[in-house]
Task: inverse folding
């Protein structure tokens, strides 16, 4: 019984690793294509990221909208804002980064958040 559960756990770990590797490769390809000028603009702009004190902000285009990502180092939160008509912003999402990384780590290890390794 223990051998089967270990095999199942290993298969789940391998499929999760495969998914994460595939996602990383797709993101890398997208970044390289975008930076190389495929699909529009020919330059990668480092000016889209700024930090001040405990805040880091990055803007990105999403279709016809501008998106603003803000990380607050003190509270360890990620906030996602949509820029409306270039005049105002609307908070779309807030995520506690500690909870996000704990959940991701637990999912990778096959445990519930807050528990140790199986």
Result:
């Amino acid at each position: 019984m223990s051998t089967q559960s270990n095999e199942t756990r290993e298969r789940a770990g391998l499929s999760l690793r495969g998914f994460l590797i595939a996602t990383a490769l797709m993101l890398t390809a997208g970044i390289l294509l975008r930076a190389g000028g495929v699909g529009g603009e020919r330059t990668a702009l480092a000016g889209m990221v700024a930090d001040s004190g405990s805040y880091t902000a990055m803007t990105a285009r999403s279709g016809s909208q501008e998106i603003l990502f803000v990380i607050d180092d003190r509270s360890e939160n990620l906030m996602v804002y949509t820029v409306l008509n270039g005049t105002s912003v609307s908070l779309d999402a807030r995520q506690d980064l500690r909870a996000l990384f704990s959940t991701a780590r637990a999912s990778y290890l096959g445990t519930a958040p807050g528990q140790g390794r199986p």
